[in-house]
């Protein structure tokens, strides 16, 4: 991956953006896309949108959500400990003992997530699964009064981990779900900047996917695309303890994953496969018989319907602070989207049958 796109990815990953608090990362996304997009703006919901050839036809939307998992402060006790609720879905077993930042109006406040030490638990407590109300954030405050001077009810919280390179082309960080998608749709637009397609292309960094795919619904309604492709992550099944009979067979480094299923327009899915093969882009196929769990579910049913597709990035350890992907897969997602956009013409019929 080139240095400039990698730096952009690093900025995205290391900038906090829990659902409902995406502002800082959206500003970075807009600043980057201003270099090559014809127009960049933010809608009333907070989605960041960049366009290329806006007067073209038909209109094609690429959506990748920028929001990540997080926590929110909901109670401060008399001793100054902070209690919280989750933003998005967590495996609570991996939450205790993490370093976090509380994002306040005056800047980040460092803390750690505490829990009663296992040595102090009785036998029954040790057997119980982790429950959210038994966890707290310790910022070192001596009492409630001091804590309230530093943080407020409603402040969001994220883990304090960044982007790191591993062996080969692998990278690890928090929030690849789905800042990797927000990155990919921006990169696709950059690849189109020197050779604009016939279609109007809109790259959208959507908000609030983790709490209901809301940004995709509002941005799609406003932009009125004929075709909409959601870019998200998908569980890789190439590590221990995964039953491929249940999870399918997706691997890091084998290329983007093209979905087939209920959320997917079959013409779009077929065209994505044909594009990948024509461009020599490695790809994998996923069967998705129900709700895809992505922005495509909202895109598909907006207005009178949109010809929707899903292109996914293989990911290990989803919804943890150590999500892992292949940078080559990520680059190939952007290349596939750009090549797809160049193949779309006004005459194409996306009616499924």
Structure report:
The protein is α+β, with helices and mostly antiparallel strands and 353 residues long. It folds into two domains: 3-68 and 174-343, Aminopeptidase, CATH 3.40.630; 70-159, Peptidase M42, domain 2 (Elongation Factor Tu (Ef-tu), domain 3, Beta Barrel). The chain has helices at residues 3-14, 23-33, 123-127, 144-150, 176-192, 214-223, 244-247, 266-279, 296-300, 327-343, and strands at 39-42, 48-52, 59-65, 70-76, 82-87, 99-104, 107-114, 136-138, 156-159, 164-165, 170-173, 200-206, 227-235, 257-261, 284-288, 307-315, 323-326. Helix 1 packs antiparallel against helix 5, helix 5 packs across helix 10 and helix 8 crosses helix 10 (327-343). It is globular, with a radius of gyration of 21 Å. The model has no long low-confidence stretch (mean pLDDT 96).
Query: Largest sheet at a glance?
Result: 8 strands, mixed
Whole-number tally of structural domains = 2
Shape: globular
Residue ranges: pLDDT <50 for 5 or more in a row? none
In angstroms, what is the radius of gyration?
21 Å
> Any idea of the CATH topology of the largest domain?
Aminopeptidase
CATH homologous superfamily grouping of the largest domain: Zn peptidases
Measured as a percent range, the helix fraction is 25-40%
In DSSP terms, counting alpha (H) and pi (I) runs of 4 or more, how many helices? 10
Number of strands: 17
Q: Using the 3D structure, state the CATH architecture of the largest domain.
A: 3-Layer(aba) Sandwich
* H-E string: HHEEEEEEEHEHEEEHEHEHEHEHEEH
């Amino acid at each position: 991956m080139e240095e400039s796109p990698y730096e952009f990815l690093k900025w995205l990953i290391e900038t906090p953006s829990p659902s409902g608090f995406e502002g800082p990362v959206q500003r970075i996304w807009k600043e980057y896309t201003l270099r090559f997009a014809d127009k960049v703006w933010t809608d009333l919901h907070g989605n960041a949108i960049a366009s290329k050839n806006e007067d073209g036809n038909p209109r094609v939307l690429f959506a990748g959500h920028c929001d990540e998992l997080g926590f929110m402060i909901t109670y401060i006790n008399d001793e100054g400990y902070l209690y919280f609720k989750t933003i998005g879905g967590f495996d609570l077993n991996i939450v205790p003992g993490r370093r976090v930042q509380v994002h306040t109006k005056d800047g980040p406040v460092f803390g750690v997530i505490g829990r009663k030490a296992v040595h102090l638990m009785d036998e029954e407590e040790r057997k119980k699964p982790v429950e959210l109300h038994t966890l707290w954030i310790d910022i070192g405050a001596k009492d409630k009064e001091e804590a309230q001077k530093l943080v407020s009810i409603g402040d969001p919280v994220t883990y304090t981990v960044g982007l790191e390179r591993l062996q080969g082309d692998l990278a690890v960080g928090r929030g690849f779900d789905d800042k990797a998608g927000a990155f990919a749709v921006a990169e696709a637009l950059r690849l189109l900047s020197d050779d604009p397609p016939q279609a109007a292309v809109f790259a959208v960094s959507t908000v609030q996917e983790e709490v209901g795919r809301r940004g995709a619904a509002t941005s799609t309604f406003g932009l009125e695309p004929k075709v909409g492709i959601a870019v998200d992550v998908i569980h890789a099944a190439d590590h221990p303890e995964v039953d491929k009979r249940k999870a399918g067979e997706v691997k890091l480094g084998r290329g983007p994953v093209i979905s087939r299923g209920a959320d997917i327009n079959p013409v779009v899915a077929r065209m994505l496969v044909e594009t990948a093969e024509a461009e020599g882009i490695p790809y994998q196929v996923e069967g998705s018989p129900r709700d895809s769990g992505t922005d495509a579910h909202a895109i598909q049913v907006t207005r009178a319907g949109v010809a929707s597709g899903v292109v996914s990035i293989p990911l290990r350890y989803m919804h943890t602070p150590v999500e892992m992907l292949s940078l080559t897969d990520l680059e190939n997602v952007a290349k596939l989207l750009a090549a797809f956009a160049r193949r779309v013409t006004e005459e194409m019929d996306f009616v499924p049958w």
